[in-house]
Amino acid sequence: MGRIAVIGFDGATWRVLRPLIDEGRMPSLAGLIDSGSSGILWSTTPAVTFPAWHSMLSGLNPGKVGVYGFAQVDVGAGRYVLNTVNSFRGDPVWRIAGEYGLRSVVINVPTARVEPVRGAIVGGPFTAGRLVYPREYAGLVREAGYEAYPEELSKSMLHRGSKPGMDSVRKAIGSRFRVARLLLERMKPDLLVMVIFVIDNLQHFYWGDSIVEEAWEYIDEELGRLLKELGGYNVLVVSDHGFTRGTSTVSTTMALEEYGLVTVKRRGSKLTMLGGLVKLGARLGVARAARRIPWLYSKLANMASRLQQGEWVGAKALEAMIDWRKSKLIPVDSLLYVNPRACPRREECLSQAEEALHGVSGVKTIHRAETIYTGPLHGAPDLIVEGETGVDIVDSPNMEAPVVEGLVRPGWRAIHEPQGILVASGPDVEPGRRLEANIVDVAPTVLAHLGVPLYDDIDGAPIPGVAPDRMPERPRGRSLAARRAREALRKRLKGKR
Ligand SMILES: [Zn+2]
Question: How far is the centre of ligand 1, averaged over its atoms, from the C-alpha of 351 (Å)?
Answer without folding.
Answer: 31
